[in-house]
Amino acid sequence: MGVVVISIISLVTNAFLGKYRKKYKKMTFMWLLMIHASIPLIVFLRIWLGTPNIFILVFIGCAVLGQAIGSKVLAEKRNN
């Protein structure tokens, strides 16, 4: 159950961060901050819920997918 919760939180959090990442120039401090801002939350939840290390790749995949969704879908909705 913890894996599903963390995966959903990772996806949703990174979708919003990806939306705001789109505003900043690539490789600037704020751009990098928007990419990495969710890591402390995900690590805390993973340790707190006691999920095995094998699921770290799932959480990374959800984070990358969330960033892509946020930068493409959510940012385009705002522009229209």
Give a verbal description of the structure.
By secondary structure, the chain is mainly alpha-helical. The chain has one domain (2-79). 79% of the residues lie in helices and 0% in strands. The protein has four helices and no strands. It has helices at residues 2-21, 29-36, 39-49, 56-79. α1 (2-21) packs antiparallel against α3. It is elongated and about 35 Å long. It starts with a helix and ends with a helix.
Features of the shown structure:
80 residues, mainly alpha, 79% helix, elongated
Task: Domain count, please report it.
Answer: 1
Shape: elongated
Q: What are the segments in which pLDDT stays under 50 over at least 5 consecutive residues? A: none
Q: What is the string of SSEs from the N terminus onward? A: HHHH
Any idea what the radius of gyration is?
A: 13 Å
Characterize this entry briefly.
This protein has four helices and no strands.
Secondary structure elements and their pairing?
Blueprint: H1 2-21, H2 29-36, H3 39-49, H4 56-79
Helix pairs in contact: 1-2, 1-3, 1-4
